[in-house]
Structures are given as C-alpha cells and as structure tokens.
C-alpha cells in the first residue's frame, strides 16, 4: 500500500531551542504537502541522524546558525558533501549576516530571517525544494557584499567575468535575474517565457560555469562586481531619460 504522505516535502528542523522547533513545526505542518519528519538540537546530532537513516532523509533542512557542539554552518558544509541532494535553508537574524554568507558558501540554498511569517516560511520550503534560491531582500545585499569585500584577486574577477561573458544573451539575462534573487516563476513572468524554459536556461548556465546551484551564480555575480556595473548602468539609463 502506498504511503499517503510519500509525495509530501519532508523537513528536518535543526535548532537548539525546543520552543523554536515547536513553533516552526506548527507553522509547517499546517501545509498539506509539508511534514516535519525529524528534528535535531545541534549540527552533530543532525548529521548523526542522516547517517543512521539513509532511507529516511529529509528533502529540506531548516538550519539554525548558533548551536552548541556543532554550529549550523559547519553542519551545512558536511551535509552538502555527504548528502548533496538535501536542500538547506539557513535561519538567521540581523546580527548573523556573516554567518549567513558562510552558509551560502558551504552550499545552503539560501537564508531566511527567523521572524518570517508562516506563509513566508512555507513558501521558502517550497521554493528551495523546487530548486530556487531564497535570498531575503532585506539582508541579501549586505550579506553578499560583506562576503566579497575580501575578494581582491584580479585573476579571479577576470575569470568570473569571462565565464559570464561566454553566456548567450538569454543565459546572461537569466543569470542576472537569478543574481537579484528572483525565482524561476518570477523570471518567467519578467521575461515572458515558460517556467520550464527558465529551468533549462539556468541548467545551461550552471553547466557552462561549472557551478553546483543557483546560489553560486549569485555569489559569482557579486564577486565579479557585476552587481555594481548593473546598478551603474541602471542609474545612467534613468538619468538619460529624465
């Protein structure tokens, strides 16, 4: 007999605060297609569960940052190495911006502020499950910019710009929209093309740039300084049409 819940999104909660886990579980379990299948109080405990239960892996992990024994950033790196198919969403607060960037660099699919509404939380789970990146507009720019300030290797910058320049016009446009944090659906609406076409284009961009996921596109875009070039072009365009 088929498990009636086999098609739901299985979520793991990793947070050292029991009350926080309970709150997230209540918000998520209200969705008909999401179930909290397991919980852990720290990163080490989460990794232990995954290793011991390879046939009951979650689809998405909501990962707190600061925890005893092993923090969420270290755990994210290990989990993405051993279980690359699992999507990880970093739960962060305003004073943890640097941690959030480290999470992205370790393979997280994005981050979300802990004060997110139930709807925002459920939408984020759906989004990362479907391959989108979650980069909260309120802190994305600051987080990425903090992380790339130390990138001063001209050869690296030249390499990244060369990779982006090797893309076709459509691929470059999609990469730019991905870098702004838009989902596949939002990109399809912006470009007036099918969502499936956006997915195929993103896949081609990832293959050409030898990248793991769309979060790496975002990081590379900022590291190459293309966000500044885009902003300057937009300013010139606006000024010229006043």
TrEMBL record:
Statement: the UniProt record of this protein carries the keyword rRNA processing: no
Residue span(s) of domain Response regulatory: 10-129
Xref: PROSITE patterns: HTH_LUXR_2, RESPONSE_REGULATORY
CDD domains the UniProt entry points to: LuxR_C_like, REC_NarL-like
InterPro entries: CheY-like_superfamily, NreC/VraR/RcsB-like_REC, Sig_transdc_resp-reg_C-effctor, Sig_transdc_resp-reg_receiver, Tscrpt_reg_LuxR_C, WalR-like
GO terms (BP aspect): phosphorelay signal transduction system; regulation of DNA-templated transcription
Sites of 4-aspartylphosphate modification: 64
Recorded superkingdom: Bacteria
The keyword Transcription is assigned to this record: yes
GO terms for MF: DNA binding
Domain HTH luxR-type stretches: 160-225
Keyword terms of this UniProt record: DNA-binding, Phosphoprotein, Transcription, Transcription regulation
Designated name of the protein: Oxygen regulatory protein NreC
């Amino acid at each position: 007999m088929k498990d009636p819940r086999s098609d739901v999104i299985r979520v793991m909660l990793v947070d050292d605060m029991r009350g926080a886990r309970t709150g997230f579980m209540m918000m998520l379990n209200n969705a008909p297609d999401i179930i909290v299948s397991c919980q852990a109080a720290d990163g080490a405990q989460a990794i232990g569960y995954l290793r011991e239960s390879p046939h009951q892996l979650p689809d998405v992990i909501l990962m707190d940052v600061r925890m005893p024994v092993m923090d969420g950033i270290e755990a994210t790196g290990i989990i993405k190495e051993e279980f690359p198919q699992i999507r990880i969403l970093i739960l962060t607060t305003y004073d943890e911006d640097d941690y959030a960037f480290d999470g992205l660099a370790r393979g997280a699919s994005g981050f979300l502020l802990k004060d997110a509404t139930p709807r925002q939380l459920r939408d984020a789970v759906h989004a990362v499950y479907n391959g989108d990146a979650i980069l909260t507009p309120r802190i994305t720019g600051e987080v990425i910019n903090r992380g790339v300030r130390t990138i001063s290797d001209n050869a690296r910058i030249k390499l990244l710009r060369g990779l982006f320049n090797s893309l076709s016009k459509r691929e470059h446009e999609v990469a730019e929209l991905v870098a702004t944090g838009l989902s596949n659906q939002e990109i399809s609406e912006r470009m007036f093309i099918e969502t499936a076409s956006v997915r195929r284009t993103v896949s081609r961009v990832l293959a050409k740039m030898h990248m793991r996921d769309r979060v790496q596109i975002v990081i590379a875009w900022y590291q190459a300084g293309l966000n500044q070039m885009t902003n300057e072009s937009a300013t010139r365009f606006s000024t010229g049409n006043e």
